[in-house]
Design goal:
Blueprint (H helix, E strand, L loop, with lengths): L14 H22 L4 E9 L5 E12 L3 E3 L1 H10 L3 H21 L7 E4 L10 H11 L7 E5 L10 H11 L3 E7 L8 H4 L4 E4 L1 H6 L4 H16 L3 E4 L5 H10 L3 E2 L10 H15 L1
Parallel strand pairs: 2-4, 4-5, 5-6, 6-7, 7-8, 8-9
Antiparallel strand pairs: 1-2, 1-9, 2-3
Helix pairs in contact: 3-4
Bound molecules: ligand C2E and magnesium ion (MG) (3 copies).
Length: 282
């Protein structure tokens, strides 16, 4: 009945819901295609050592430009990839492409200390992840310390038993593990004892608010103290102004990332940036 007459009282979806569902399906199909044809790209954002002014590392961030949908934000296509079972493939692609790019820059004589790749909790369900990463690293003649994996606190809500095992395995290999968006996701700090973390990334919301909000300022202070006590690297993300940089430095932050230094850049622009920065430092 509903099928024969789209406007029937029996139709399950309103026109609006129907349209949303169709858009989502079209986007899902397009994402599947983009992964198959490898038309996603990575942009790269430098992380700066505030004391030396030198490059600490580079974060790889996924980008998707679709001929009709235009630029689709990772805030949209990452959750979509998770929902429709494509996140495993996306994670492998990001790892592979980041390692390939890092190796290419090094061959070109550019000094890039390490690369950070974002992974979703689901990526750690894969018992083959450690082996896959090791294969990828050796294929590009890279060492485990060249790679850092960024995870978020949502990994803690994940009850899959493989997750902790894979995290421990990866860490035991010497690959870096970083807690991204630190301070936003989870109310208990107890997990810092259980997870093998090397790095904390202070969420950009605290950096954004620290100049005007005493509580945010107190929290940025608390986070660097936690990181120091646990001998972890702490990276401040979303640093946009000189004032924020100075406040962070006063508190003891040594590594920062944000528009103040550079936006995420396409590979060729990142390469130009690297050449300019090397020139400045020599
Ligand atoms: P994230 O890993 O926390 O990345 C930082 C986000 O902040 C990026 O947004 C970056 O472009 C943005 N950003 C950098 N500097 C500044 C700044 O100074 N100010 C402000 N306001 N923003 C800044 P983007 O690229 O849109 O990525 C959003 C999120 O999508 C990432 O957050 C990450 O969670 C996820 N993501 C991106 N690429 C991947 C990927 O390859 N795999 C997975 N699983 N997730 C990814
Ligand atoms: Mg990240
Ligand atoms: Mg973050
Ligand atoms: Mg984030």
């Amino acid at each position: 009945q509903a099928k024969a007459n789209g406007r029937s009282h029996f139709s399950f979806f309103s026109d609006e819901m129907n349209q949303l569902a169709q858009e989502r399906l079209a986007l899902e199909t397009a994402l599947r295609e983009a992964l198959q044809q490898r038309t996603l790209t990575l942009h790269y954002q430098p992380q700066i050592n505030l004391e030396s002014g030198r490059l600490h590392g580079i974060e790889a961030l996924a980008r998707w430009h679709h001929p009709t949908f235009g630029n689709v934000s990772p805030m949209r296509f990452i959750p979509l990839a998770e929902e429709c079972g494509l996140i495993g493939q996306l994670g492998q692609w990001a790892l592979e492409e980041s390692c390939r790019q890092l190796a290419a820059w090094r061959r070109a004589g550019l000094d890039v200390p390490a690369i950070s790749v974002n992974l979703s909790p689901t990526n750690f369900h894969n018992l083959e992840l450690t082996r896959y990463i090791n294969d990828t690293l050796s294929e590009h003649a890279l060492a485990p310390r060249d790679l850092t994996l960024e995870i978020t606190e949502s990994v803690l809500l994940d009850t899959n038993p493989s997750t902790l095992r894979t995290l421990n395995e990866v860490h035991a290999q010497g690959i870096g593990l970083s807690m991204d968006d630190f301070g936003t996701g989870y109310s208990s700090l107890g997990y810092l004892r259980r997870l093998p973390l090397d790095e904390l990334k202070l969420d950009k919301i605290f950096v954004h608010d620290m100049e005007h909000d005493e509580t945010a300022l107190a929290l940025t202070h608390a986070v660097i103290r936690i990181g120091e006590s646990l001998k972890m690297t702490v990276v401040a993300e979303g640093v946009e102004t000189q004032a924020q940089r100075e406040l962070l430095e006063q508190q003891g932050y040594k590594v920062a990332q944000g528009y103040l230094f550079s936006r995420p850049l396409a590979p060729e622009q990142m390469e130009d940036w690297l050449r300019r920065t090397v020139d400045q430092n020599t």
